[in-house]
Amino acid sequence: MRKEYDFSKGERGKFYQAYQEGHTVKIHQTDGSVIVKHFTLEDGAVFLEPDVREYFPDTEAVNNALRGLIALFPKEK
Q1: What is the distance between the alpha carbons of residues 29 and 39, in angstroms, rounded to a whole number?
Q2: CA–CA distances in Å: residue 56 to residues 20, 37, 38, 42, 46
Q3: Does the reported pTM lie above 0.70?
C-alpha cells in the first residue's frame, strides 16, 4: 500500500455479511448503457475468519487439515 493511503478510520468486516448474501455491480459503458451483474459465492466457497486464517493461509493448508480430520471419522458402510 502507498503511504498516502489512510485506513485509520477503516472498519474490518464492515461489509462481510452483505458480501455473504451476494453483491451487485453496475458497469457503466462509454456509450451510456449500464450492465448490472449480481455475484454470489461460488459453490463450495467459504470464508475463513481472521483468527483461523492465521493458521491456514491458503487452500492447500485448509484441505490438508480437513483431510486429517476426515481420517478420524469411521467410513459408513
Answers
A1: 19
A2: 20, 31, 29, 20, 13
A3: no
